[in-house]
Structure of Putative N-acetylmannosamine-6-phosphate 2-epimerase:
Amino acid sequence: MSKLSHSDILQTINNGLIASCQPVDDGPLDKPEIVAAMAQASIIGGAAGLRIEGVDNLKATRPYISAPIIAIVKRDLSDSPIRITPFLEDIEALAAAGADIIAVDGTNRPRPVDIESAVKKIKELGCLAMADCSTLEEGLYCQQLGFDIIGSTMSGYTGGDVPAEPDYQLVKDLRAAGCYVMAEGRYNTPELAKVAIEIGANCVTVGSALTRLEHMVSGFVKAIHSANA
Ligand SMILES: CC(=O)N[C@H](C=O)[C@@H](O)[C@H](O)[C@H](O)COP(=O)(O)O
């Protein structure tokens, strides 16, 4: 378990890369021991922290990692679009498994448990709270509720086509409003991650480009095939 204070955790990840070690669901890399290996490799590469999905993956990873871990549970619910850490039981399980920071969906959509109870539970359990938001309005509401980190994670994922680019404007607006900002979502190259910091993000999370190998390989394959099309 990390022994850092809350302010040390925020300081440790400030200006840093968070490697989101989330393999493709049910793919060959989707195994706790592989997630733990990805996490260690990411730290060797210089990541300041990690984002880990699932209690079993967190339990497998935590013993090897002293850097801050942002933990989530993803669920596909039949009666709500909320996927990221929807239940208080998920928060309890992540805290017990050694999360430093617990992220929950921060969007303004129908949810099984109100967000006020979620942030209260995270704080009671001694963790930092992160809100995965899609708009400035949601981010400001979550900031006001006491969330420590506001992420642009859900921008582009609440309906319609997913844009190709990251939502830079949301990052700028959240920072201008005084939030501690995590740029997250479609920062798929080192250059884009650099832009995130340049426009004011405190830190940037990169997932697919680091740990969804199937997606990266298929991107190369498509590009190669299109050469002679
Ligand atoms: C919308 C949603 O559910 N985002 C998830 C949150 O945990 C992950 O699927 C993303 O991989 C993560 O946010 C990092 O983003 P990117 O993979 O674009 O670097």
Remarks:
- The chain has ten helices and eight strands.
- The pocket of N-acetylmannosamine-6-phosphate is lined by residues 20, 22, 72, 83, 153-154, 157, 184-187, 205-209 (CB under 6 Å).
- The chain has a mean pLDDT of 97.
- The first helix runs from residue 6 to 13.
